[in-house]
Amino acid sequence: MSYSKKRYITYALITIITMIIPFIKINGNHLLLLSFDKLQFHFMGFAFNMNELYIMPFLLIFLFIGIFAMTAIFGRVWCGWACPQTIFRVIYRDLIETFVFGLRRLKNKQKDIDYSKTSNKFKKYLAISLWAILSLLASINFMWYFIPPEDFFIYIQNPKEHFFLYMFVISISVFLIYDIIFMKEDFCTYVCPYSRIQSVLYDDDTKQIVYNTKRGGNIYENGAKSIFDLKQWNANEECTTCEACVRICPTHIDIRKGLQVECINCLECSDACSTVMGKLGKASLIDWGSTNSVLKNRINNVFSKRNIVYIASLILCIILAGFFASKKEAFLVSVNKTTSIYKIKENSEVSNNYILTLHNTSKETYTLNVEVVDKENFRVKKFKPTKLKPKQRVKTVLILQTNKRLFLSEKKNIAIKTKIIAFAKENPKIKVQREVSFIYPRNDLIK
């Protein structure tokens, strides 16, 4: 099977998976969702509130290290096999323009379409219209990762209340139309930062598109093309100078010149060369391999020091993310002081008022109560056990009190750190501990 067919299958699978992920739920939570509306992040069936996003840094680190590791080991495999830009360009260029409307030939992607013909102009506008519809679907699918489908379809029924949602969808669609139809592969070359950093991550063991100069011969000398015709070769060079690899390249480069920033690792050139060389009973002169494996006949060292560090870093990120995910709290407690700093009553009684925000993030109904850890010096003077339904959030008052004369300072108020525990009466093992500041007045204020 050619690389092109393998890529088309990969694109189809990625598209299907991307479309269905927003609809997949585990235990009532989405597989992947970053909801700014509900201030939640769903990942692998776990729901994290914004003040629980301690898992996010490890996922972002994993993402960036993963990109670096993937590039260092496999080259720009992302660009050619999974990048949305590449997939969208293939859909528009190879499917819509080539197969649906016949505006271009599949084996010649560098030749411009002749729009002087009336029929081609009409087909062009039909192609743009069809892509506009697909762009709208793609932008809607993108929004599903931020607004779950069940909410999205409700929101779009009220355009006045969700004007910005419409604007986001339309803006993304317009960008995709401009990008895919007019900017084309120039986006990869001039806009995408990934193409600029790839060469820094490459070494002789990196898997990439390599033209085998040992078999085919050097087409370029000192960056300039020196071979234009088969007659210029000696007897040993195998390249037929047919230019099939050049004509089929979507980024308009000649891979025989060597590694170039425009190359997206699509392997179209390798398929073209395989077709030509196959008629001569020979293998393709363009391989997907490393400089060591293709030109130096060395075995790639997958477990190099660099790769081991990458792999160890990725494993560490997974372990840390899993560890912190396991520490997810069943309910959230936020403690804030009221405007009243403290109250002083007879018998040296000092009390502090707090506002507790309680949020039940679980799927069970719990009755939450509060106790103070330092029972020797403090006690809970007022708190009403609060029953919370799943996902419910309430605010309530907590008053802590001390009857002890502490004699802390003659000149100023002192903030004493103490801890409270909020726990579920139905299951005392479900509890959350928070540190609070108890403001104790200066000595002369207490009788």
Describe the protein in words.
- The chain has 447 residues and is α+β, with helices and mostly antiparallel strands.
- Helices cover 39% and strands 22% of the residues.
- Among the domains are: 203-295, no CATH class; 331-445, Immunoglobulins (Immunoglobulin-like, Sandwich).
- The strands form six sheets. Strands 10, 11, 12, 14 and 16 form a five-stranded antiparallel β-sheet that branches.
- The radius of gyration is 32 Å and the shape is elongated.
- The chain starts with a helix and ends in a 7-residue tail after the last strand.
- The mean pLDDT is 85.
Estimated helix fraction: 25-40%
The CATH H-level superfamily of the domain at 331-445 is Immunoglobulins
- Tell me what the CATH architecture of the domain at 331-445 is: Sandwich
| CATH topology (fold) name of the domain at 331-445 | Immunoglobulin-like
> Any idea of the CATH class of the domain at 331-445?
Mainly Beta
Strand residue percentage: 15-25%
Distance N to C terminus: 91 Å
Q: Give the overall shape.
A: elongated
Number of helices: 14
Total strand segments: 18
Short description:
The protein is of the alpha+beta class.
Key phrases:
4-stranded antiparallel β-sheet; 22% strand; Immunoglobulin-like; alpha+beta; 18 strands; 447 residues
